[in-house]
Structures are given as C-alpha cells and as structure tokens.
Design brief:
It is a single chain. This protein has one domain (3-126, 152-270). It is built from twelve helices and two strands, in the order ααααααββαααααα. It has helices at residues 3-30, 36-58, 69-91, 96-103, 106-117, 124-140, 155-177, 183-204, 216-243, 246-250, 256-267, 274-290; strands spanning 142-145, 148-151. It has a two-stranded antiparallel sheet. A hairpin with a 2-residue loop joins strand 1 and strand 2 (148-151). The longest helix is centred in the first third of the chain and has 28 residues, at 3-30.
C-alpha cells in the first residue's frame, strides 16, 4: 500500500484517538446525572441515528448479507456493549486522566493478540516494551502512604485494564473478519446492534427521565459522545484498519492520555500526581519501544513509516 494511503489512515486513527481521549471527560461529567446503562444506550442511539443519515447523505447501500450478521453481533457485543459498560463502570471510581493513561496500554494487548492470531512478529524489543509499560500501569494504580508506595485496591483500575484488553480484542476481530463492506456501513450496523442490546436496560432504568434534567452543557457532552465518539471515531478507526496492521493502528493510542489529561485538567479540574505522570511516561516509552519499527517520521514529505 502506498505512503499517501498510510498517511491518510494515520490521520483517521489520530482523529479517532483524539475524540476518544476527550470522551473520558464527557463520560465522567455525565455520570453525575445519568446511570451507566442509560448513558451507553443514549450514546449509541444518537450514533446510530447520525450514521444512518450519513449513509443516506453519501448514498451508501445500507443492506448487508445475512452471512455477516453473526460477525456484526460479535463486534457489537465486544466493541460496544461490553467495552462501553466496562469503561463507564471504571470512571465511576477513578479519574478521567488515570483512565486515559491506562487505556494507552491497549497496544501491549494488541501486540500479544496479533502475535497469536494474526501472525504478526513478536521481537525481544516488544518484550522489553511490555515490561516497561507494566511498571507504568503499576505506578498509576499506586499511591504513597507513609513514605512507601502501596497499590490501590480500587476496582476501577482493573475495569480500565480490562477495557484496554477488550479494545485490543475488538481491533483484532475487526481486522481478522475482513468484512467486504465499507467501514461506514460496518460502523452503523455495529452501533445499531449495540444500541438494541442496551434498550432493555434503558427501559428498566427509565433512562428517558434524565433527558429533561440535563443542562445545555451536559447535552453538548452527550451529543459529542454520540456523534463524534461513538459515531465518527468508530468509523475512522475502521477506516484506519483497512490499510494499516492492527499493531500499527493501536500505537496511536499513546496520544490518547495526553488529550485526556489536558481536558481533564481544563474541564474537571483534575490534578496530576507524580506517580501518574511517571507511570504515564513509562507506558509511552514501553509502547514506543514495542512499536519502534512503526515510528512515524517525516522526511521530505514522502516517507511516513519505517519498518
């Protein structure tokens, strides 16, 4: 595949990561008013509606073959239903910035899964990268008491690590299924099926009642989650995976914690502690070591990836 296509795919991945980085802040904000299940349902209901009208506007065929429906159900369960519920549960008890750092651990899981299921190479440098990143996660989930570092028993961190693993599984599945439809069509059906799975929980929790108590500021967060995070970002992630390997795409996730930390400080007034900063740096070093042969560089505008 030529370099311009790789550059464009990289841009899609970066935009998706940027939206997802901000999403932790929006989710944390909305969880003060909306329960987990209603929030996920509203997000993907809005996303499905947006993607449906986008398909009509672009004149994409919406129909799909019955043969791929099981694959779409698997993607919806893993990438929408399970993933979003795990993340929202984690954000009930941990800060948005910590969640952003931990989710950047995803490339570690992606590299391991790619080695086992996609026959991608696993080198000694990747082993070193994994080791460094693990120490980074341990630092983020720790706190200092009486001059000694103790690890937190907060289950939110474990949920966030599970979320990173789950997203790696989703990316591997999306890549390995090789569905012969446009990313936009796949994203619409995945979002819509995921939304249908949440409807019973939305009804049980009377989620419609929160719509009248949201402030305009909170509505902005909800629409952002639905349109840009659950709609456009999922679509762009699929487009990136059309061209790049799963490991290549996942490396962009090291940008996400920086986006999350910035917006968490601006909108949620979160403070970064030293252990989180050092842990985050270790994760970034580990991830870049893991993927050093995919480092992006610019040279005279015509070479973007080095293997």
């Amino acid at each position: 595949m030529n370099n311009p296509n790789k550059l464009l795919s990289s841009s899609y991945a970066i935009l998706a990561i940027t939206f997802w980085g901000i999403s932790f802040v929006s989710t944390k904000t909305l969880l003060q008013k909306i329960d987990i299940y209603s929030l996920v349902s509203l997000r993907f209901g809005i996303a499905s509606l947006f993607l449906f009208f986008l398909l009509l506007l672009l004149r994409h065929p919406i129909s799909i073959k019955q043969a791929i429906i099981p694959n779409l159900f698997i993607l919806a369960i893993v990438g929408v239903f399970i993933h979003q519920l795990i993340q929202a549960t984690a954000l009930l008890s941990i800060e948005a910035s910590s969640a952003g750092w931990i989710i950047s651990f995803t490339p570690i899981f992606t590299a391991l899964l790619s080695f086992f299921f996609l026959s991608e190479r696993f080198t000694f440098s990747r082993l070193i990268g994994i080791t460094i990143s693990v120490f980074g996660v341990l630092l983020i989930t720790s706190h200092k008491t009486g001059g000694t570092i103790q690890f937190s028993a907060n289950l939110g961190y474990l949920f966030m690590i599970a979320s990173a693993l789950n997203w790696a599984v989703y990316s591997i599945l999306l890549k390995s299924f090789r569905l012969t439809y446009s990313p936009l069509v796949i994203t619409f059906w995945t979002s819509f099926i995921g939304f249908l799975m949440t409807v019973p929980l939305f009804i049980r929790n009377e989620g419609h009642t929160v719509l009248t108590i949201l402030s305009p500021y909170e509505w902005v967060h909800l629409l952002f989650l639905g349109i840009f995070v659950s709609g456009i970002a999922y679509w762009y992630w699929s487009k990136a995976l059309e061209v790049l390997e799963a490991t290549q795409v996942s490396v962009f996730m090291y940008l996400q914690p920086m986006v999350t930390a910035t917006f968490a400080m601006l909108l949620l007034k979160e403070q970064l502690v030293y252990s989180t900063i050092i842990g985050g740096i270790l994760i970034i070093i580990g991830v870049t070591t893991l993927n050093k042969h995919f480092i992006i560089f610019f040279r005279k505008g015509n070479t973007f990836f080095r293997k």
